[in-house]
């Protein structure tokens, strides 16, 4: 028997879109039998990722490419974590109206995770505003890939 896979999903939100994304990912992980915890970024220390197999961040982008203000400590500390052997994924909602700054926080979190030595489990997902039906399919495929990668590392 293989060990139960575990995950932690962290989101930053002002108007709820990224919480919705985190909920969709969390629900899919639960349905797949993964033991998952979901928390808000300002209430979370990135050391929680030390205790799980799959690490997920769902961030919004603000003020032309800015990270969530309440997540700056989390972001700084994440880069210093040692997460080799773990799988990570980033999925966030921004607004295409901001053109070259569209979902920049997603790219920034992907870079921070790469510094930790964690393995990317699926391409990052960028969503425009609220997740629609098509986005939910993308999030389901993203989540499946994270699970497959985590299984391959067990
Ligand atoms: C003042 C302001 C600045 C924003 N700047 C950006 C930006 O630079 N890039 C981007 O992709 N989205 C930007 N957005 C859009 C939000 O990221 C988008 O609405 C997102 O869905 C919010 O997520 P939330 O519902 O989880 O808070 C901005 C929104 C506001 C109100």
TrEMBL record:
PROSITE patterns: FLAVODOXIN_LIKE. Residues 7-147 form the Flavodoxin-like domain. The keyword Membrane does not apply. Its cofactor is FMN. Keywords: Electron transport, Flavoprotein, FMN, Transport. Coiled coil: none annotated. Low-potential electron donor to a number of redox enzymes. Belongs to the flavodoxin family. This is Putative flavodoxin.
């Amino acid at each position: 028997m293989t060990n139960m896979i575990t995950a932690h999903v962290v989101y930053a939100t002002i108007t709820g879109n990224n919480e919705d994304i985190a909920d969709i990912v969390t629900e899919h992980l639960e349905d797949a039998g993964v033991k998952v915890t979901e928390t808000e970024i300002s209430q979370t220390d990135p050391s929680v990722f030390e205790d799980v197999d799959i690490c997920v961040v769902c961030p919004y982008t603000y003020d032309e490419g800015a990270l969530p203000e309440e997540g700056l400590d989390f972001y700084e500390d994440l880069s210093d974590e040692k997460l080799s052997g773990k799988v990570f994924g980033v999925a966030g909602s921004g607004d295409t109206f901001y053109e070259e700054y569209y979902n920049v926080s997603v790219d920034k979190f992907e870079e921070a995770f790469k510094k930790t030595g964690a393995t990317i489990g699926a391409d990052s997902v960028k969503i425009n505003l609220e997740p629609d039906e098509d986005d939910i399919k993308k999030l389901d495929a993203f989540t499946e890939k994270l699970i497959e990668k985590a299984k391959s590392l067990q």
